[in-house]
């Protein structure tokens, strides 16, 4: 059903859900409204030198006030699915206690608006905006934070669970570990490998506890993790590169996939960390059972491959985008999807992020010509189609991102949206890619 049509078209399976993705801190703004508490990204972005041009998410794309217009734009595109995240500090200002009804109400209005337009909501519980009060109590370095997360998740399930068919627990635990705790260029800005991998374990534990919290409600919603996966390839034919690539893959992919899908951490990574590491010492009896609580689907985010040398360094093989970490290699999409299905079985997969930053400008004629994004998406859609034809149970695809937004440490300089945001006026303009994507959705393929 997904094979090439006689006309050469690449048609996706019936019911395939085309979508777009965002996250709360990157688009909402309204940082002090309706009882929202502070998150570590408020703190980080307001610390001089942490973000490009000192940009913050205080206003962002003002989605908190403009969500109705944004819903109409989604309907104009023909989206079948919309992935957004819930801001923990809007629900619990200090990360604990009774949920803030005004925070829940905002997401209720958003979700109702999606249903009215025939768009399926997909909600991420945590997309990096940790309440500052919890960070002050240790953040993800503290095991207790995983239990606080499960309480927050339960409050969200109680408030919205009847209307949200798919939940994602934690967005890209790896990015929290690496950018937040190894390299320090994301909040909370730490550079401490011992802390970083302990954080990895606590993120996994939080994921498993949230899965159990959903099951305990008896609700019908489906739930899974949202992992950014990087296909790792040896940079050359040497035996050293092959060995180094294997371990690199452990740290990039298996450290996050294996505990959830097989109930065990990868032995090579544990051995490399060593028995005295804070992470290995932090794993308690029963933790892996919690982490391996059965999930309903796996959310995969793919942006770039990684090429590894015999020394364990990385090199570039393909042209990079405006994001220096991103090499453009659509084949990597095929490789990661087929590999996950081969190694972990036929668990349903959703692509929750894939996209490209472009130097988009608003032309004198009022259009935005992002031809590079169109060809990037076309090539990645085609690679995903081949994976489906080869048996990968892929059910949906969310482009990152619906709108230009606050790209973390890169601020507003990097534009990732299908829709252009003119920040001084907050006017939205559909880029060429948005018009093109609407046709892809209408045809259910290329
Ligand atoms: C994702 N990498 O982060 C995030 O989930 C989004 O919030 C973000 O805006 C988007 O990708 C674009 O950057 C990533 O190093 C961070 O490969 C780093 C990588 C990939 C994704």
UniProtKB/TrEMBL annotation:
EC number: 3.2.1.21
The entry's keywords: Carbohydrate metabolism, Cellulose degradation, Glycosidase, Hydrolase, Polysaccharide degradation, Signal
Pfam family membership, one: Glyco_hydro_1
Catalytic activity: Hydrolysis of terminal, non-reducing beta-D-glucosyl residues with release of beta-D-glucose
Record-linked InterPro entries: GH (IPR017853), GH_1_N_CS (IPR033132), Glyco_hydro_1 (IPR001360), Glyco_hydro_1_beta-glucosidase (IPR017736), TAT_signal (IPR006311)
Disordered as annotated region, ranges: 36-56
Coiled-coil region(s): none
Keyword Ubl conjugation in annotation: no
PROSITE patterns, sorted: GLYCOSYL_HYDROL_F1_2 (PS00653), TAT (PS51318)
One of the record's GO molecular function terms: beta-glucosidase activity
Family per similarity comment: Belongs to the glycosyl hydrolase 1 family.
PANTHER family, alphabetized: GLYCOSYL HYDROLASE, LP05116P
NCBIfam families the UniProt entry points to: BGL
Record-given protein name: Beta-glucosidase
Organism encoding this protein: Micromonospora mangrovi
Classification of source organism: Bacteria, Bacillati, Actinomycetota, Actinomycetes, Micromonosporales
């Amino acid at each position: 059903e997904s094979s090439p049509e006689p006309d050469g078209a690449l048609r996706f399976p019936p019911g395939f859900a085309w979508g777009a993705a965002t996250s709360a801190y990157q688009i909402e703004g309204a940082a002090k409204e309706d009882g929202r508490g502070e998150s570590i990204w408020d703190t980080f972005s307001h610390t001089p030198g942490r973000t490009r041009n000192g940009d913050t998410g205080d206003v962002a794309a003002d989605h908190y006030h403009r969500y109705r217009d944004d819903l109409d734009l989604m309907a104009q595109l023909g989206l079948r699915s919309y992935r957004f995240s819930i801001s923990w500090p809007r629900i619990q200002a200090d990360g604990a206690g009774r949920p803030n009804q005004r925070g829940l109400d905002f997401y209720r209005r958003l979700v109702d608006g999606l249903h009215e337009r025939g768009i399926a909501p997909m909600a991420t519980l945590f997309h990096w905006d940790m309440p500052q009060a919890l960070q002050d109590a240790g953040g993800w370095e503290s095991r207790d934070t995983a239990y606080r997360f499960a309480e927050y998740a339960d409050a969200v399930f109680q408030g919205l669970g009847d209307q949200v068919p798919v939940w994602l627990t934690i967005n890209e635990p790896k990015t929290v570990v690496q950018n937040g705790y190894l390299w320090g260029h994301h909040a909370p800005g730490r550079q401490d490998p011992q802390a970083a991998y302990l954080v990895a374990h606590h993120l996994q534990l939080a994921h498993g506890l949230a899965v159990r919290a959903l099951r305990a409600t008896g609700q019908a919603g489906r739930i899974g993790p949202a992992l950014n996966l990087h296909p790792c390839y040896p940079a050359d034919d040497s035996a050293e590169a092959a060995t180094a690539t294997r371990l690199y893959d452990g740290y990039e992919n298996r450290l996050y996939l294996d505990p959830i899908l097989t109930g065990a951490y990868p032995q090579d990574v544990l051995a490399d960390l060593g028995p005295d590491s804070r992470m290995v010492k932090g794993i308690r009896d029963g933790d892996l059972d919690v982490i391996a609580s059965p999930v309903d689907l796996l959310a995969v985010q793919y942006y770039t491959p990684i090429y590894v040398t015999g020394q364990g360094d990385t090199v570039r093989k393909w042209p990079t985008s405006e994001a220096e970490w991103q090499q453009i290699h659509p084949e990597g999409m095929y490789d990661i999807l087929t590999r996950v299905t081969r190694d972990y079985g036929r668990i349903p997969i959703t692509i929750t992020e894939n996209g490209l930053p472009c130097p988009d400008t608003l032309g004198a004629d009022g259009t935005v010509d992002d031809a590079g994004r169109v060809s990037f998406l076309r090539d990645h859609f085609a690679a995903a189609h081949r994976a489906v034809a080869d048996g990968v149970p892929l059910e949906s695809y969310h482009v990152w991102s619906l709108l230009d937004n606050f790209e973390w440490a890169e601020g507003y300089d990097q534009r990732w949206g299908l829709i252009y945001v003119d920040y001084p006026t907050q006017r939205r303009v559909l880029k060429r890619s948005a018009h093109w994507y609407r046709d892809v959705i209408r045809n259910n393929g290329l």
